[in-house]
User: Which sequence fits this backbone?
């Protein structure tokens, strides 16, 4: 099984996220909300173009359907290192599928990858940093 490590950023207010210096980077993102003092996991997504282009597409679309203050964490794959751009894009795609499948019961808005996860996409994911409700380790056993 392939193994990766994702480092999650501090949760940033979604209204200020586009000002972050990492907006031209690629990776994963994790959107949560705080409503009435309760944190809910809304969405895990990915971008292989730039955070800015992908997050702008969420901006005035579905997020307004959820009350409360919204936050975004950026997820950067920090291991393995020194891989090609194509390999990184594939890992980002596979990490998104694995995370959504494993967290499907707590993600409110994700609909893709909630029923199954192709075995070729499966990763063992170690999450570090400000991971919120994402477990420190995630993997899918062959029985799932």
Assistant:
């Amino acid at each position: 099984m392939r193994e990766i490590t994702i480092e999650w950023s501090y949760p940033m207010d979604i209204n200020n996220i586009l000002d972050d210096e990492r907006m031209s980077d690629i990776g994963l993102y994790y959107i949560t909300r705080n409503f009435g003092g309760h944190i809910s996991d809304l969405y895990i997504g990915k971008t292989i173009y730039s955070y800015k282009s992908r997050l702008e597409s969420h901006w005035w679309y579905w997020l307004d359907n959820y009350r409360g203050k919204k936050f975004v964490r950026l997820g950067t794959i920090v291991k393995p290192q020194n891989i090609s751009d194509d390999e990184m894009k594939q890992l980002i795609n596979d990490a998104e599928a694995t995370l959504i499948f494993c967290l499907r019961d707590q993600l409110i808005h994700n609909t893709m990858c909630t029923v199954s996860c192709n075995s070729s996409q499966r990763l063992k994911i170690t999450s570090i940093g400000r991971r919120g409700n994402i477990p420190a380790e995630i993997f899918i056993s062959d029985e799932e």
User: Anything to note?
Assistant: The longest helix spans residues 85-102.
